[in-house]
Specification:
Layout (H helix, E strand, L loop, with lengths): L5 H5 L10 E3 L6 H12 L4 E5 L8 E7 L2 E7 L5 E5 L14 E3 L12 E2 L6 E2 L5 E3 L3 H5 L12 E7 L3 E5 L8 H5 L4 H8 L3 E11 L3 H9 L8 H7 L2 H4 L3 E4 L3 E4 L28 E6 L3 E6 L2 E11 L2 E11 L4 H15 L6 H14 L8 E3 L12 H14 L28
Antiparallel strand pairs: 1-19, 2-11, 3-4, 3-6, 4-5, 5-10, 7-8, 8-9, 10-11, 12-18, 13-14, 14-15, 15-16, 16-17, 17-18
The site of fe (ii) ion (FE2) has 5 residues, from loops.
């Protein structure tokens, strides 16, 4: 049957089984989206920035996780801490700038304090309330400053200096435990010496955040990328492992990229990260939407902030070694931007593709099947990574990804989600 009518279009392909497709409503439904913010995004460790973005005491950066305003500060003791960016007085957002320093103070704020502009309450870098304007006159002795400190959040600096925050005080795993073996392939490369952000841009894309994560974790779409086909498609590329780990994480193993096959590109071996084989390329996709992508000489990190069922903000960072000479840094920037910058060879292609998905999976679109049924012995074009991600998602949401109106149920035993057994390349 060459084409399908309304009924057969809605039916899953006959040869595929539950777990090998998902229902597009999980990308477009507002109720599911709201539920994800509380059941997924508020429950996981989320990387929010890199410590090199707040190098000095009193530096800060602000962001949101699941719509909650968050502020990350570096104290005079150099320690990085995270708080809800919300004033305990009347709930104002305390700091509205994306980044800056509290060291010098502002017209309405004393140096070395976070000051809420509304009624000028002040907080130190540990989140203690340090000053309440006209405290005695208004509260006599009924309110103590120690009862109105900021809401402290779980915060760790881990994996090459990334700052991780978890909104859930009950989270009982460290970032290392939560990421587990998924970190292994790049741990030595990023932890050997301090890293530094050299590139930052962000984009608001009309698609669900999971579609961007899918694109980062499946390589079948290298058919979209002429550059990757030319520099990649060979036996070693097709043997790259696609491995799944506890808590929904996925790793794509390495191979040697032949940059010299593409006109204008050269080997990146001269500025490889520590412990990296020359022109190697690893990708780590952390649940629910954090991506580390190291092409030998430049580390890319995508951090996502879901804004709505069909809207995501993606912050793109490029990182090199803090010890870089100007020449090395220039080489890394060139390597990063020529592929991943806003005008690079690949990034816009991915953005166009997911925008195309978003355009067809908006809230009013009829439900359809999204296929994740490729099996290629856990190699690069096997869609086991996405199957694993959605199984974890289904458990956390207690919804069946292939029919989100039903509660979670495990896929058939022989589907090989690689869960919870970690597989290494
Ligand atoms: S709301 Fe912050 S000082 Fe009043
Ligand atoms: Fe891509």
């Amino acid at each position: 049957m060459p084409t399908r009518n309304a009924q057969t279009w809605r039916e899953p392909p006959k040869g595929l089984r539950q777990g090998e497709w998902i229902d597009s409503r999980i990308y477009s439904d507002s109720e599911i989206f709201e539920e994800e913010l509380s059941k997924v995004w508020k429950k996981c460790w989320i990387a929010v920035c890199h410590e090199s973005e707040l190098p000095e005491p009193y530096d800060f950066r602000t962001m949101t996780i699941a719509r909650e305003p968050v502020i990350v500060t570096r104290g005079p003791d150099k320690k990085v801490r995270a708080f809800l960016n919300v004033c305990p007085h009347r709930g104002n957002m305390i700091e509205m700038r994306p980044s800056g320093s509290f060291k010098e103070g502002t017209p309405s704020g004393n140096p070395k304090h976070m000051t809420c502009m509304f009624h000028a309450w002040q907080f130190d870098m540990k989140g203690n309330c340090a000053y309440i304007s006209r405290e005695k006159e208004g509260y006599q002795d009924r309110l103590s400053r120690k009862d109105v400190g900021l809401r402290k959040l779980k915060c760790e600096v881990y994996f090459g200096g990334f700052v991780w925050v978890c909104l859930d005080d009950e989270m009982d795993m460290s970032v290392a435990e939560w990421g587990g073996q998924a970190f292994d392939c790049l741990q030595k490369a990023v932890d050997e010496e301090p890293l530094e952000v050299f590139h930052y841009h962000k984009a608001i894309i009309p698609c669900n955040y999971k579609l961007w994560h899918d694109t980062n974790s499946e390589f079948y779409h290298d058919y979209l990328h002429y550059h990757n086909r030319i520099t990649g498609f060979n036996d070693e590329y097709f043997a790259r492992k696609n491995s799944s780990y506890d808590n929904g994480h996925v790793v794509v193993g390495s191979f040697k990229v032949r940059y010299d096959q593409y006109k204008g590109f050269d080997s990146r071996a001269d500025v490889s990260f520590p412990h990296m084989e020359e022109n190697a390329w690893y990708m780590i996709d952390m649940f629910p939407g954090i991506n580390f992508n190291l092409r030998g000489s430049a580390l890319r990190c995508d951090l996502m902030t879901p804004l709505g069922p069909n809207e995501v903000m993606i912050e793109f960072r490029g990182l090199g070694l803090k010890s870089d000479t100007p020449e090395q840094r220039e080489a890394r920037i060139e390597h990063h931007n020529s592929i991943w910058g806003p005008f690079g060879r690949n990034l816009h292609e991915d953005l166009i593709a997911v925008s195309g998905q978003g355009g067809a999976m908006h809230e009013m679109a009829e439900p359809r099947r999204i296929l994740h049924g490729r099996h290629e012995n856990h190699t690069i074009h096997d869609e086991v990574g996405m199957r694993h991600f959605y199984d974890t998602w289904g458990k956390m949401m207690n919804r069946l990804p292939s029919d989100p109106t039903k509660p979670y149920a495990p896929p058939p035993d022989d589907l090989e989600l690689e869960e919870p057994v970690a597989r290494t390349a």
